[in-house]
Design a protein that fits this description.
heterodimer, A: alpha/beta, 6-stranded mixed β-sheet, 5-stranded antiparallel β-sheet, 10 helices, B: 279 residues, mainly alpha, MetI-like fold
């Protein structure tokens, strides 16, 4: 089987802090992989390696390999803007730009040089349909995105990523700012997107991981402790530390 | 002594603050009213459209209006792009380092220098060394230097206030740094940047000492950037200082005040038009 994303001996240091230690992970295409673990274990850092977002931070040093479709994402001929188009990211807080709904969804396309009005309109409709937001906002496409509810804003942020037709969706605790009902809706949405996209979600909510993910990785202190099918991780963990965590002994 | 009840103390504090605020606003209103009261009766259509006669004792102030517009307008046209570019460089293109600290410290020092020093520098450098003479161009360049720190610092504040999340999202969608700066950062910071530019324009218009030494005090209508020109503020200064005509001095001051007021209102209206709705 060909993995979508694969890492080898991935190490990341932040100044003197060793944030990721020899991480090996293989992410299957068109599936949801969850990364769980207590705060500060490096799960968001790992996620941000996949679209090279850590490079924005001063003092970060990365060794080892990350392959996307078998190709090293750190190789010099990789165009960072194209990489980030292929590997989109949804952040913890809903963070639409203070622009209209339309301008938010088309931001990525415009950045990548799409100008044709019809193409932009088409992308807006299909992206908003993909996130089940179309019916809610089709009459207020030119209204301010910040006037939407938190859940709608987060769906808008997902649409904004989906609009550039990525292959991978990285989600960094996408529901932590939402109430349980909205969380449920976003989880349904993730499942519906999983047949088209490879989704990697970071969450400190174990139930969420159990509900949505087919594969699950448990991280602790920068180490990938255990990785495998979600059911096995939760029901039959091999490592004592995983067992302690999923049974609620810490975190 | 019996302690005041919290309620009474609250009432006393509020009334004191109200009086202080009223005193501030009242003084401002009094000054403006005083000047307009003495000046407005002399502001006629002829006053606005004619050239001064016998050193400003009679006639109008048309050349000064044109001169002020040219000197201040040019100063801001020169200073705004440089100032905003510097602010963008300081906030988005460098990391905090000794160099940025030095640039920032330099800007703060420049902002604290009295305008007459800028005037002296402009006189020595632009007027004499570069041979521009007493001219609109010398005046504008001097004023540009003078307002540059204000534009840099206000733009920087406005840019810093743009949430970091917007930058992350923009990068996350594959934008380049330049796209991120122009489409997200400047877009969001525009109201703040604009305020700084309008402030600078107001400061240029009301500046006297610096333009006296660089743009000169010629009474004629400037026909090019290399002509000497007297600005409104300087005209007012000369009329009152040399006792030429107090009524015309007040009239000039009225025009100055009203134009700054109109300019501010227009600028804010324009900003609302330009900044992409909705906000």
């Amino acid at each position: 089987m060909d993995f979508k994303i694969q890492t080898q001996d991935l190490n990341l240091t932040y100044g003197k802090f060793h944030a990721l230690k020899d991480v090996q992970i293989q992410i299957k295409p068109q599936s949801i992989t969850a990364i769980i673990g207590p705060s500060g274990c490096g799960k968001s850092t790992l996620l941000r390696c996949f679209n090279r977002m850590n490079e924005l931070i001063k003092g970060v040093h990365i060794t080892g390999r990350i392959h996307l479709d078998g190709k090293d994402i750190h190789s010099p001929d990789v165009d960072l803007t194209i990489l980030r188009r292929r590997v989109g990211m949804v952040f913890q807080k809903p963070n639409p730009f203070p622009l209209s709904v339309f301008d938010n969804v088309t931001y990525g396309l415009r950045v990548h040089g799409v100008r044709r009005r019809s193409e932009l309109e088409e992308a807006v409709e299909s992206s908003l349909r993909a996130t089940w937001l179309w019916d809610d906002v089709k009459d207020k496409l030119w209204g301010p995105a910040l006037a939407l509810s938190a859940e709608q804003q987060q769906r808008l942020c997902i649409s904004r990523v989906v609009a550039v037709r990525p292959e991978v969706l990285l989600m960094d605790e996408p529901c932590s700012a939402l109430d349980p009902i909205a969380t449920g809706h976003i989880e349904d949405l993730m499942r519906s997107l999983a047949d088209r996209y490879t989704i990697v979600i970071v969450t400190h909510n174990m139930q969420q991981a159990a509900r949505v993910a087919s594969e699950c990785a448990f991280m602790l202190l920068g180490e990938l402790v255990e990785f495998g099918p979600t059911i096995r991780i939760f029901e039959n963990p091999k490592d004592k530390r995983t067992e302690d965590y999923v049974s609620g002994h810490y975190g | 002594m019996r302690r005041l009840s919290p309620r009474t103390a609250q009432q006393i504090v509020v009334s004191i603050m109200w009086m202080l605020a009223a005193a501030t606003v009242g003084t401002l209103v009094f000054i403006i009213a005083f000047i307009l009261f003495h000046g407005l009766p002399h502001v006629t259509w002829e006053f606005l459209t004619q050239s001064p006669v016998s050193m400003g004792r009679k006639g109008g102030i048309f050349p000064m209006i044109v001169g002020t517009a040219m000197v201040s307008g040019l100063a801001v046209i020169i200073a705004a792009p440089i100032g905003v570019a510097t602010a963008v460089y300081l906030t988005e293109y460098t990391r905090e380092s000794r160099i940025t600290a030095v640039i920032r410290f330099g800007a703060d020092c420049l902002a604290g220098i009295p305008s007459i020093i800028f005037g002296l520098f402009g006189f020595v450098f632009f007027t004499i060394t570069l041979g521009m003479g007493l001219s609109v161009l010398s005046g504008a360049l001097t004023l540009a230097l003078m307002v540059l720190p204000t534009i840099v610092r206000t733009s920087e504040e406005a840019i810093r206030a743009v949430p970091y999340a917007y930058r992350e999202v923009s990068y996350g969608l594959g934008s380049t740094r330049w796209q991120m700066v122009t489409r997200v950062v400047l877009q969001s910071a525009m109201p703040g940047i604009f305020t700084g530019i309008v402030l600078s324009l107001g400061r240029s218009i009301s500046e006297t000492a610096a333009v006296m030494l660089t743009a000169g005090s010629a009474l004629g209508l400037p026909s090019s950037l290399f002509d000497s020109s007297r600005t409104l503020a300087l005209h007012f200064y000369i009329l009152s200082r040399e006792g030429v005509s107090m009524s015309n001095a007040y009239a000039t001051a009225s025009v100055l005040i009203i134009s700054i007021l109109v300019l501010n209102v227009f600028a804010y209206w324009l900003m609302h038009k330009l900044v992409r709705k909705p906000r």
